[in-house]
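hey so i finally got around to running the thing on that chain from the lab meeting. sorry it took forever, my laptop kept dying and i had to restart like 3 times. anyway pasting the input first so we r on the same page abt which one it is
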Amino acid sequence: MNAIKKILGIVWILLALATAYFGIAVLGLPKIASGNQEDLVFGIIIMGVLTPIITGGLLIFGKYALEGEYGD
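ok and heres what got predicted. didnt touch it at all, straight out
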């Protein structure tokens, strides 16, 4: 079971990296660069609030899973 938890720790870290890329490159920067007022607000919220919270949470969860903090 501990091996599965460590493997899932790697999965969480990879998911965090994918979330960071998606939040910045796909949702954040194109919305900010569009020049539309509604897109600008959405892009700022995505890049300034949601992406750091989601990515940070996944990274911390993955780090603790790799270190075995969730062991029996």
